[in-house]
Amino acid sequence: MNDGDYAYSYLRESTITAESGRSSVRLATSGGPASHPYFFDGFVERADVVATALLAVARVARTRFYTPPGMLAAVLRAADPVVTSDGHLLRFEGFSACCGVHCRLDLLPDGLDRPPADTGTTNVDFNPPMRDALARVGGADPVHLAVGTDEVRVTTLDTSVVERRVPLPERWVKGFGDVQAATAAMSVRFETSAVALRRFLQALPPTPQRGVLYAVPAAGGLRLASRPSTGAVPISAVERLRVLDPLLRHAQAVHVYAKDSGGEAASAWQIDLAQARITVTVSPAASRGFSGEGGLLEDLADGDATTDADLVSARMAYDPAIDVPALARDTGLAEHRVRRALTHLAAAGRVGFDFETGSYFHRELPYRPETTNARHPRLRDAGALVAGGHVVLAPGEAVVRSGPTTYVVRSTPDGDRCTCAWFGAHGTSRGPCKHALAVRIARQKARP
Amino acid sequence: MTPVDRLLTELRALPAEDRHPVSLLRSFYELGEVSEPPAVEPPEWLGRAVAEGVTRVAAGWPMNALFGAVRMLERLGLAKLDHDDTYVLAMVSCLGDRWDGAVRTEALRRDPELRELVWRVFEVEGGGEVSLANVDKFSEHDATWAQTFQVLVADGTLARDRVLRSCLQALGRDFSAYRAGWFAQLYRSLDPSTAERVAHQPLLLHLLRSAVPTTVSFAVAQLAFVAKAGALDDDGYTAEAAAAVVAPAKSTAVSAISLAAAVATRRPDLAPAVAEAVGAGLGHAHRDVQSRALAVLRSSGARDIVAARLDELEPSVHRTASDWLGVPMARPLAEDPEEPTPTVAADATVAELGARLLAGHLDALDVERFLAALAVGDHAGLDALRKQAARVLADTRWDRSLRRHIAALIVGGPKRASTGPGTFLARRLGEVAARRPAAPLLATPTDSRGWLDPSVFADRLAANPEPRMFDLVAALLRLAPDGHAEALRSAGTLPGEPGAVARYALGGAPAETTTAAWWVAAARSRKPLTDDPHLVAAGLDRAGQGRAAEYRLRLGKTAYDSVLEVDPAGARERADQPTVVGPSSVWPGLDADWIPWHAAIWPHDAEPFFAVRAAEVLTASSPHPDVTYGTSAILDTLVTHPGRLGPMAATTLAAGLSAAEVRHRVLAAEACARLVPAGRITAEDLAGAMAHLAGHCTATRWAATLRDAARTGPAASAAVVEVLDHLLPRLAANHPGLHALLETRHEEAVRLGRGAVGDPMLTWLRTVTGGSKAARLARLVLAEAAHGSGQP
């Protein structure tokens, strides 16, 4: 699954220094809108909160929460977090090596002493000495934060380029995009306090949890349940949420998001901090990422969505929130087509989703996202089935021939059902099987 | 030619495909120490191969001292390596020998450059097999890195203070808990003096913010020494204390609060800041921490801080705080648990059902629907599953599984499924696989809980008067308890022995018992829990036949030695009489995927099922549990089984409440919260089962799970108090973990406002005396009881 090495090239290593008694965090950048973008140089409120939150992002980016059997001796080659500037706020994101946990820290405009200087997305260097230094940052004073270096500084510093190569697996790059589409399908299920979440996490036994459970509000906080219920949030390998623990003493509120349907699904845990927010999204199971979440494949199966996505992409700007009605007006597309195009762009890593505004925001992953669509094998196989004329449509059902085997796809009120082994194993919990996708594509093509 | 020249000569001739980097290092390692430079020109690829070897041993532990070869190659000029993180990890990995501590110690003594490089091991975390913590964990005690540092500090080779400080600096890095623990242990093992701890105070204060709970505990413990010497930095400690008072370990949090309280006493100017920090302790999960924090806040009059966090307090602390603040105590609202609902779509086709079953989703109703379809010759779409079914049949992992039988049905080869014993369920599958002339099954349930409507049964039998042997047994055992009279009228003219058996099951007259299995099933359906005189007279007088059975788990020394006792004795399991189970049951030896269908055999009574399944839950609940695969499904049956839940169900629940795995405890807590308030398992029966298992289960786990159960609603909370009132008098006053049970009892009683205690409990509480935690809590419960009854 290795997609080959990805090369980071930094003008220098990120550093933390003490300047006039205050911590100064200088993050080196690599790739994106420029070779070494320069986004921000100013002060951010609450050094202790920012340092702890940045460490949480970095920790997710260098952690493998699940190690497949036979990989016990694997060396962790962590990928560096990315930061997106939209000219108003800064968003730091990290994705775990196992593809099951995504973490995003939003430094809000209220906490920045000036707007970012530029827009775009880039990688930032979180080297071990940098993390060590971040762990020592304390106090409630503002922290000096620089993301990138301005041109003057570049020319005056005696710079030496720092290069690192890391292997980025295909599913890692794909998952980084998929998680955005997954979160867009979620809604808030409950809100709770930091104390309740801390107690909940601290009460968990040290042994890893197997299978899906449900977090539900209960007297005095949260409890786990074995079955879905109103307001319950599915959570598998709940110990992955412990990455939030160091932040909880700074937390003001906790919002928990999930899809409305019961069963195994992803969930997102957003912590409100002083002038910042951090969101950890966990996949439906420790052993898998976000593939098929949020109806992504259905949207991607829509052939028109690709064209629409190109059109929408051309009109997007680095605004804090993407305005769907405005985009609809600009592009002449119906709003539902704009939304579907945005799902398409999310999967390609070209937009992220913000729970607070309930909308997408523009960000371009620096990881060759343009090939992401080719990384959905079910979609690719479904297209091949249709192209090969292997789908025969009939009212209420369809027959799909794959090699010597014939599958029947039935339309039911619960969605399309297939007779294949994949559907038997996963049902609709991971999106449609390739046969159901093929039928969907064939139906679209058959429309007059 | 010297050995090194000989080796270099060999290497020059080595084909590219044979240049294995780690083997190369091993070749030089086996030369021993070489001091003379080689005369032979090394191969041009040697440097690259050595660098690759270093990378490999940095990622995987070779378990012997290959790093000595790396140093030698550097000294001889045969390799030029960056002394980066990978190099440091290679040093961690294989500077020493797993069995011989002298190798590493001597290497450091004779290599001055290495003694400078060795400090980097405090900066590079490592991971997987290679870290200080992991290498030491799997090395002989005398061959550990920790022992190396102790020896070299003792003989002055390494500076003691630098080692101590390096440990604290490493603990301040963002290392994982597993790997950070090594540095705390080394610091402690060097037994720093008070003066050294005082000198290290700034580093220790910084550790209070660590994300690793054990590091926070370590720092608090070290700072307590500093405080005892009167040298605590009051300002510094106050600034950092809030992080420590929420440390998960109760003792750490209480110590942190005590240190803070002493600061407030010494430095009144810091009292407001101390109160803010201590206030965080009100959010701690443990009531002792909350109580200590509340006491400190009361002494400093910090009413606002307490008022703002009232809702976070445990009931007893909440009441104390409310009394102090003069506000009424609010009782948190809770919801009742929802009833479980079936999740399977009823209209699934046979192919869809087959796909689900092959994938391991072996819901009992799905199995029945699948069999029902096959029995009438519905094989539509099953061809799509033949490849998957063939894979299951070829995979030995599934040899004793239900899914193997399902696969055999799909590929149409009944003989291929005949692995494992011929249980009742296996024989039912065999009947369908035999593919007699298509005839509908009698036993397919008519409701989601597994019952068969008696009238539907009568109609099906009328349409199929020569039923399959095991199918009729299954149908008889599933007859729902209502609607018998009407069904009996319909069955009045059913022919032959099947008709007679059906009428007897529905309350009709007895007849000759030719086919024992049918009559046993009919009797267990007619009056499931009482003896049947007709069958007893006919000689079918074993437990589970004409006699109602009672079961008990006789415990051995460990959870693995339990033996099932059946009364009346002498029951022998038979495939055609599934209500009969014995001490040597075949069921636990099968794959766990049979469990849901096994549980659905006899909806009237869950006892035979739990009689043979309780032992697995007990195994999952022991202090040192094994991994079990059926425990979740067994515990789930407690909630989903519609019939009688007797002593074996109570035993299963009692064991589940003490399970090691979080999922099992969640299932047990939910079962407790549903079943005890509903009276399906009485509080007394559950307490009796818990007392029976008390020697095998962990009382602190019981306490935690009962607290979780109580949090599902007021009825569950009351049930938990009742269970504990029955259980506690049966336990010894020195039972391990008793304090946790008493604390749960106390907190839930306060939450409910129920102080009253029955006589047996009252008598027992008075026997728990002394200064233990349990005794203190017993006195609290007694005081609560006296307060509730108005006694002084």
Automatic annotation (TrEMBL), chain A:
<dbReference type="Pfam" id="PF04434">
    <property type="entry name" value="SWIM"/>
</dbReference>
<protein>
    <recommendedName>
        <fullName>SWIM-type domain-containing protein</fullName>
    </recommendedName>
</protein>
<keyword id="KW-0479">Metal-binding</keyword>
<dbReference type="InterPro" id="IPR007527">
    <property type="entry name" value="Znf_SWIM"/>
</dbReference>
<keyword id="KW-0862">Zinc</keyword>
<feature type="domain" description="SWIM-type">
    <location>
        <begin position="407"/>
        <end position="444"/>
    </location>
</feature>
<keyword id="KW-0863">Zinc-finger</keyword>
TrEMBL record, chain B:
<feature type="domain" description="DUF6493">
    <location>
        <begin position="108"/>
        <end position="223"/>
    </location>
</feature>
<dbReference type="InterPro" id="IPR045472">
    <property type="entry name" value="DUF6493"/>
</dbReference>
<feature type="domain" description="DUF7824">
    <location>
        <begin position="438"/>
        <end position="529"/>
    </location>
</feature>
<protein>
    <recommendedName>
        <fullName>Secreted protein</fullName>
    </recommendedName>
</protein>
<dbReference type="InterPro" id="IPR056726">
    <property type="entry name" value="DUF7824"/>
</dbReference>
<dbReference type="Pfam" id="PF20103">
    <property type="entry name" value="DUF6493"/>
</dbReference>
<dbReference type="Pfam" id="PF25148">
    <property type="entry name" value="DUF7824"/>
</dbReference>
